[in-house]
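Human:
Focus on the backbone:
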Amino acid sequence: MSIVVRDVHEHELDSVLALNNAAGPAILPLDAKRLQYFYECAEYFRVAERDGMLTGFLVGMGDAADHDSSNFRWFRERHSEFFYIDRIVVASRRRGGGVGRAFYADAQSYAELRYPQMACEVLLQGSIDPVLLFHGTFGFHEVGQQVMEETGLRASMLMKPLCSYPWISQTYGRDLPDAPWIHTPRTLRLDSARKAGGRA
């Protein structure tokens, strides 16, 4: 069956938490409080569904977010106007089945309407070549490395230009067309704030 990517529902947070904390050392652990923060504040928080089961999730936010991640701060200190992927998790039984690619395609479709570039990081531990190759096929390239103050782990800091953004920005500015694939209930609030002059 096909992969469906959609906004997360609050009653699914326990399942999302279990997915995150079963993902292994490449994903930092979460607790319920931190996950609730993402639910309330993250600009992009979507899950993937396949055969009626949750198979993963992706959390992302814009550069103006109130986010305390040292990796997010690293990007904000060096770059402006970007969409940051805080984490992407795919259930182990579904890895290699296209869920990650579906998430990145959906996240880019969202981000390129609003930001000129995307940012994320890859933890440099364990067998990372498949992860770096995966990101490379999506056009990400390393812009630096940093040791995370929270964990002491080294991360490769990756960015990708979003080539459609300049045309979209020049053509529509902040007045994006009113279409369901552009505005979800979660993003309506943020897009309204941008139109009012803020960058929520």
In short: The mean pLDDT is 88. The chain has one domain: 4-173.
